[in-house]
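Subject: Sanity check before I submit

Could someone independently write out the structure tokens for this chain? I want to compare against mine line by line before I put it in a report. The sequence has 110 residues.
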Amino acid sequence: MHQISKEMQSCIEECLSCYRICLGTAMTHCLETGGKHVEPKHFRLMHACAEICRTAAHFMLLNSPHHKHICRECAEICQECAIDCERLGDMHECVTACRRCAESCRKMAG
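---
Independent answer below. Compare away.
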């Protein structure tokens, strides 16, 4: 039986954490704060980030060779999300989760 490497397991955990934090932050902090936090471009980006993180974790759990492509895209979207959340401010947990996930996914993308 082929086991998932420690590096991949770590990336799965970072992706699932980022998924949880991005979606949770969008649905609570951003919706309740309003203003720039719910502008379509930012709100869509947060949802796209959450979804690509969930998808990347899923592909790694499947042990699909396609996970590298998904992880490359995930790293790009997470980086973009981190920059945008930092720009808005008061979203430190999301910024940190996105940066950690982006770094982990870049390694998995090889």
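---
OP: Matches mine. For the report I'm noting this point. Helices lie at 6-33, 40-61, 67-88, 92-109.
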